[in-house]
């Protein structure tokens, strides 16, 4: 690491950059523990409550194995570790780190919206209001004070959501492939 990169890394701090990885890991422990069983118990009720959702989505949700989800979470973890390291190496200036940070926070809001839609608990909803959203707001504030985060534009929101969605979809596709599924 060059002296400039070291100075930049100190500017935003490892709590901001590698904190993304730590916050993600804690959040995903909840999802790993809760999602497979929650889907098995709730898919039939959700299928009746939300009939406009395509049948293929319900079949996929009801048939997801814990192993597939665990492999997908591991793959997302590799992505988050990589973007956290990029954020650290650039003092928080990395565009991909900032996009992932935005995506993490926005995905926390999606969890809360899902819980509101089903009028109850959904996996990820417990840690989103106490960890995901607060960490994202704190980290963005630190980056802003360090002078490395520009004001948020609608494009940044779209990129963050797109990054989170693409990472999730790709991780599940790879997990199915690795485990020999369709």
From TrEMBL:
Q: Has UniProt tagged this entry with the keyword Transmembrane?
A: yes
* Cited Pfam families: HXXEE
User: Where do the TM regions start and end?
Assistant: 69-89, 157-175
Alphabetic keyword roster: Membrane, Transmembrane, Transmembrane helix
Q: Which protein are we looking at? A: HXXEE domain-containing protein
């Amino acid at each position: 690491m060059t002296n400039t990169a070291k100075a930049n890394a100190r500017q935003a701090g490892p709590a901001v950059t590698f904190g993304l990885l730590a916050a993600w890991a804690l959040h995903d422990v909840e999802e790993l523990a809760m999602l497979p069983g929650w889907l098995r118990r709730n898919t039939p009720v959700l299928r009746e409550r939300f009939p406009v959702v395509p049948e293929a989505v319900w079949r996929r949700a009801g048939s997801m194995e814990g192993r597939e989800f665990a492999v997908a979470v591991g793959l997302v973890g590799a992505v988050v570790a990589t973007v956290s390291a990029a954020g650290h190496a650039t003092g928080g200036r990395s565009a991909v780190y900032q996009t992932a940070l935005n995506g993490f926070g926005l995905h926390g809001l999606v969890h809360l919206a899902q819980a509101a839609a089903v009028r109850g608990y959904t996996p990820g909803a417990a840690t989103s209001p106490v960890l995901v959203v607060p960490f994202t707001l704190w980290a963005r504030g630190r980056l802003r004070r360090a002078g490395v985060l520009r004001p948020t534009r609608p494009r940044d929101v779209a990129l963050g959501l797109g990054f989170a969605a693409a990472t999730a979809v790709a991780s599940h596709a790879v997990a199915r492939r690795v485990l020999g599924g369709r």
